[in-house]
Amino acid sequence: MGQVHHHVLPGRARNPNLADYDQAVTHFKWEDVERNFTWYDTGKVNMAYEAVDRHVREGRGEKTALLYSDSTRDESYTFADLQEKSNRFGNVLRKYRIGKGDRVFLFMPRQPELYFSLLGILKVGAVAGPLFEAFMETAVKDRLEDSGAVALVTTPELLHRVKREELPELRYIFLVGGGSDPENYVLDYETECASASEELEPEWLGLEDGLIMHYTSGSTGKPKGVYHVQRAMIQHYYSGKVVLDLLDDDIYWCTADPGWVTGTSYGIFAPWLCGVTNVVRGGRFSPRDWYQTIERNKVTVWYSAPTAFRMLMSAGTESLKGVDLSSLRHILSVGEPLNPEVIRWGDKVYSQRIHDTWWMTETGGQLICNFPGMDIKPGSMGRPLPGIKATILDDKGNKLPPYTMGNLAIQTPWPSMMDRIWNNSAKYEEYFRIPGWYISGDSAYMDDEGYFWFQGRVDDVINSAGERIGPFEVESKLIEHPAVAEAGVIGKPDTLRGEIVKAFISLRQGYIPSPELKAEIASFVRSGLSAHAAPREIEFKDKLPKTRSGKIMRRVLKAWELQLPAGDLSTIED
Ligand code: 6R9
């Protein structure tokens, strides 16, 4: 482990910024990045202005900003179009007195209106909260309630999952795709936008004013609202340049949904701050469809995830027949460990390296990466971005030597670091319990050349197909089922998805274990919470291992599953 593989393929990186990594690190100053923004001179800050309006003002209004397609739509929008559409929705929000600091959520599938309305929200200084369309009732309610969202943009198909009567702070709903119920403050998005002005002066903000909230899972408690501020744009822009390697004529495709942080930081902000053409493909994953998306749009830079690459790999050469992928010059991955096997497969089928990047919802942007042009060690997440200091700490905060596994920690602060956990300062402070450091929750080691190697999570968070799943949220839903007395949820290793959700369940009296009951319980979670959180495997047990204080010991469940020794059982109940 740890040695450079010297058969590195010729890179097709075009951005010289990091040609000499050590030089770049030595001379790096965030202030040099800040000079690229208009607010550096004017003092007027607004992410949507920098990502859209400034391109229009600087003569790039007719450049294609968004190439959208799904099975029924095929549309293209310029930066000037984005400006007009987002101004209109911004004016709609102002008409209803929604503005600076208000939380406005989005709950809809990927489609152009999601992007227009998100930008409109930012234009008026409100904080955007994108929710993944697969969320069901409970997941939607928990997030809208905790954030105190005052308005929601959604579609008629998803509206029934929004429990209005339980959400007193939610005043307005904007429906994309028809329908309205003005008495109940359900308004038609199109009609409202059509009658609004296309001129709008953005709300001028400070770097510490709100930008976006993403709910994400930890090992305990409900999902946490990770709150980011305008300052994050410095990191989005910089990593767009040096990690995504974006240049003017690139056609960029990030496959992530804006419901996850990758779909906003790198599906919206980074590409548009860098002024490049951004491809969005709606609908479901299929290998053929994805390759055709690359071919049709002549995608040059492609950002995806290990599970997707593994699915493409297992689809075999059949899916590649007759498609021309020669436009691709830079491929990146995030979300889970990128297996060396996948990298070697990528070498063959794409004739280039897939570049792994490491970061989290909380970090707001990429921190440890394989940069274009650098020697890649398959299996390593890469090296810290210039401006970022990463290290490995023990639990007391002592730095550990190379090749020793410990807590992956980042020196604070950096521009896109989360500003707070909404409504939960105790949770926020847990990340910063060692002064001067952010403790990621991942374990890793560093080799003697400063490359970082991911080892796992230190907590019980499950990573299935790149999606972060909190066992607590799933357990809470499970015990709402009448048959379930107790439930403990773990991640079980899986070759395709990295991990799958596995639930151990003890049944209430009178219920008899059966395959049908398993299926029913799984579908209860699927329809109440979301498909990705539903257990793919259920095992019934007479009793679950618990501490004397009554906490289910997931660590013991995991040991059962992996047939490992269960470790210290001194706190177990009996
Ligand atoms: C951006 C995003 C964060 C967690 C993180 C880690 C895992 C992300 C990874 C990786 C191994 C990588 N993770 N990138 N593990 N190698 N390159 O994914 O955010 O959804 O918050 O997940 O994902 O465990 O802590 P998020």
Automatic annotation (TrEMBL):
UniProt name for this protein: acetate--CoA ligase
GO annotation terms (biological process): acetyl-CoA biosynthetic process
Every AMP-binding enzyme C-terminal domain range: 473-551
Entry superkingdom: Bacteria
Xref: InterPro entries: AMP-bd_C (IPR025110), AMP-bd_C_sf (IPR045851), AMP-binding_CS (IPR020845), AMP-dep_synth/lig_dom (IPR000873), ANL_N_sf (IPR042099)
Alphabetized PANTHER family for the sequence: ACETYL-COENZYME A SYNTHETASE, ACETYL-COENZYME A SYNTHETASE 1
Organism of derivation: Paenibacillus apii
Molecular function, one GO term: ATP binding
Gene Ontology CC entries for this record: cytosol
Domain AMP-dependent synthetase/ligase: 58-417
Keywords: Acetylation, ATP-binding, Ligase, Nucleotide-binding
Gene name in the database record: acsA
